[in-house]
Amino acid sequence: MTKAPAYFGFWYRLGSWLLKSTSWLVLFFLIMPILVIIPLSFNTEPFFSFTKGMLTFQPEAYSLRWYSAIFSDPKWILAIQNSFFIGICATIIATALGTCAAVGLARDDMPARRLITALLLSPMIVPLIITAAGMFFFYSDLGLAGNYLGVILAHAALGTPFVIITVTATLAGFDYSLVRAGLNLGARPVRVFWDIIMPLIRPGVISGALFAFITSFDEVVVILFMAGPQQRTIPRQMFSGLREQINPSILAIATLLIILSIIMLVTIELLRRRSARLRGVEA
Amino acid sequence: MSSLTTTEARQAASAQRKKRITAFMFVVPLLVFILLTFVAPIASMLWRSVHHPTVAELIPHTLEALKDWDGKAVPDQHTLQIFAVELNGLAKERLSGKLAEEFNRAYTGMSSVVKSTARKVAKLKGDDLRDKGAQTLLDANPKWQRTDLWYAIQRAGEKYTYDYYLTALDLELKPDTGIQVREETQIYLQLYSKTLTMALVITLLCAALGYPLSYYLAGLSENRANLLLVLVLLPFWTSLLVRTTAWIALLQTNGVINSFLMGVGLTNEPFEMLYTSFATVVAMTHILLPFMILPLYSVMRGIDPSYMRAALSLGDKPIPAFAKIYLPMTLPGLSAGALLVFIISVGYYITPALVGGTDGQMISNIIAFHMQRSNNWELAAALGSLLLALILLLYWLYDRFVGASNIKLG
């Protein structure tokens, strides 16, 4: 907002005051639910709400009880291991295939670009329930339902659009004369890719990989339909916890996930700045 | 300027083609992967919504005999006889339950009839079965004498059918009147319209909350705006399940909001907010709001404030100036955000399933119900295909007006 010019008086100031207070209310609406979870996870009692003791800051009303409950429950430990294992495998597949495709899509001589882009981005648009239903039918027939391979392939497919989007963004304005120079100087295409293209698009590749990982890490619908009890992940475990027996260990795991998302957010922001700087140097 | 010779033109064309092929080769691995792991499953779902051979496999001879049936009276003794023999066989192989389920789908209330009849027919042996089969059938339940039942059986026996689409649209096919609105329970159209209404309400709420905030942020200095954007991005990056959990903690009967309201004396009775459509709308607005704010903010950042200043200093009033100058310039961001929020909310499953109760369910939830509980996979596939058609239409609009490759993250 620009500073109130002299030719506006009371109404202008009222308007900007209203805008400011509305905006802060919306920010409060966005962040408050997430902040509420953190203190609640230290509840001594098995409730989802603040006890009298917590509100008066009695030390004995707070405890790490639910955190130790998570790390002593084999179900939660399996879920944590599964989430990371499936997420990492899916991310590797999605990043490799997505980066390669983005390099092709960014070239001027790519045929049918619009159609192929729309097709490759569709896993992001199609509702998960439809994807999950289709995969359940198809993967069961192939014997891929209820095992790790099926879940990993499914999550990899869901993650690729994010890799394409982030890598394509870093390839915008890419100077292809660098590639030609490399080839002219006798480097083989593979070397050109690793030594010239890759360093320039690396920030995009890493943030795409992070998006792909978080997509898999957060995904629960496909898991609900396709995974067996051995493939239960953190969100799957939270889902059944919220449906069956609500207790604050869900809040404890939620707090840990919030910390993870803060780390992700900071990493992505640093990468974005680095990418802007790299391309700034190139321009 | 001399024109190209044929050879030169051919060489240029072949070089061009080579380049196109090289570019395409980069895309091939992912294209194949997506076709196999994503497109093929969805195609198999579409296929399943029209292809249903179960009944045809269970009672092939009865269906063969029914081909000559005129559809006016009860099928002849011979047909009933064949059916009795097949039912006897199915009962012995413990497949009559499956047939009961299939018949029940085609003709409501047949589940128990088929099961009890199967028990009676199963007792017949050898010649008895051949002689008394038809009579046993008719004695077991008067429903076997109804022509519309046999019509329904005949239709259920078709390997390829659009019946599930009729059901999904609350229609039915009658032998005499053709396609008409279903007489019994009509739920699906209502559910589709409820889903669309809820998605619309969520989109409008996101626009109403997101627009002023984006406007405010766009007016701040870049550093300060980036700092406040963290408050938008943190929820965006936080797990969906975490945010849904938060709303359960906030909205439940003895939850944070009710304790607060009762604590400050605004109310004596807690409000019932969780497990309602209100809870679904509030939680989904919270979850989808960043999808509205981010495109809006990036568009508003790029608008030069001098346009507004010019209009105001030339004497226009603030509100008309805003409507005529600022609002039209923000429309690309607004439409991008609105379409994205609408597309995502139409197909939402998890949040309605956890906070919506029975009242706040959407179309995805009924698809999951038919997949997991009622095991009517074909109906789930038909409902899913309709939802998919709707989403693809919206995606096409998005691609036309915004451009699918313009989707930005973070």
UniProtKB/TrEMBL annotation, chain A:
<keyword id="KW-0813">Transport</keyword>
<feature type="transmembrane region" description="Helical">
    <location>
        <begin position="21"/>
        <end position="42"/>
    </location>
</feature>
<dbReference type="InterPro" id="IPR000515">
    <property type="entry name" value="MetI-like"/>
</dbReference>
<feature type="transmembrane region" description="Helical">
    <location>
        <begin position="118"/>
        <end position="140"/>
    </location>
</feature>
<feature type="transmembrane region" description="Helical">
    <location>
        <begin position="84"/>
        <end position="106"/>
    </location>
</feature>
<comment type="similarity">
    <text>Belongs to the binding-protein-dependent transport system permease family.</text>
</comment>
<feature type="transmembrane region" description="Helical">
    <location>
        <begin position="200"/>
        <end position="226"/>
    </location>
</feature>
<keyword id="KW-0472">Membrane</keyword>
<feature type="transmembrane region" description="Helical">
    <location>
        <begin position="152"/>
        <end position="179"/>
    </location>
</feature>
<dbReference type="GO" id="GO:0055085">
    <property type="term" value="P:transmembrane transport"/>
</dbReference>
<keyword id="KW-0997">Cell inner membrane</keyword>
<feature type="domain" description="ABC transmembrane type-1">
    <location>
        <begin position="80"/>
        <end position="268"/>
    </location>
</feature>
<protein>
    <submittedName>
        <fullName>Putative spermidine/putrescine transport system permease protein</fullName>
    </submittedName>
</protein>
<feature type="transmembrane region" description="Helical">
    <location>
        <begin position="246"/>
        <end position="271"/>
    </location>
</feature>
<dbReference type="Pfam" id="PF00528">
    <property type="entry name" value="BPD_transp_1"/>
</dbReference>
<keyword id="KW-1133">Transmembrane helix</keyword>
<keyword id="KW-1003">Cell membrane</keyword>
<dbReference type="GO" id="GO:0005886">
    <property type="term" value="C:plasma membrane"/>
</dbReference>
<keyword id="KW-0812">Transmembrane</keyword>
<dbReference type="InterPro" id="IPR035906">
    <property type="entry name" value="MetI-like_sf"/>
</dbReference>
Automatic annotation (TrEMBL), chain B:
<feature type="transmembrane region" description="Helical">
    <location>
        <begin position="196"/>
        <end position="218"/>
    </location>
</feature>
<dbReference type="GO" id="GO:0005886">
    <property type="term" value="C:plasma membrane"/>
</dbReference>
<keyword id="KW-0813">Transport</keyword>
<feature type="transmembrane region" description="Helical">
    <location>
        <begin position="21"/>
        <end position="47"/>
    </location>
</feature>
<feature type="transmembrane region" description="Helical">
    <location>
        <begin position="325"/>
        <end position="350"/>
    </location>
</feature>
<protein>
    <submittedName>
        <fullName>Putative spermidine/putrescine transport system permease protein</fullName>
    </submittedName>
</protein>
<dbReference type="Pfam" id="PF00528">
    <property type="entry name" value="BPD_transp_1"/>
</dbReference>
<feature type="transmembrane region" description="Helical">
    <location>
        <begin position="273"/>
        <end position="299"/>
    </location>
</feature>
<dbReference type="GO" id="GO:0055085">
    <property type="term" value="P:transmembrane transport"/>
</dbReference>
<comment type="similarity">
    <text>Belongs to the binding-protein-dependent transport system permease family. CysTW subfamily.</text>
</comment>
<keyword id="KW-0812">Transmembrane</keyword>
<feature type="transmembrane region" description="Helical">
    <location>
        <begin position="379"/>
        <end position="398"/>
    </location>
</feature>
<feature type="transmembrane region" description="Helical">
    <location>
        <begin position="227"/>
        <end position="253"/>
    </location>
</feature>
<keyword id="KW-1133">Transmembrane helix</keyword>
<dbReference type="InterPro" id="IPR000515">
    <property type="entry name" value="MetI-like"/>
</dbReference>
<keyword id="KW-1003">Cell membrane</keyword>
<dbReference type="InterPro" id="IPR035906">
    <property type="entry name" value="MetI-like_sf"/>
</dbReference>
<feature type="domain" description="ABC transmembrane type-1">
    <location>
        <begin position="192"/>
        <end position="398"/>
    </location>
</feature>
<keyword id="KW-0472">Membrane</keyword>
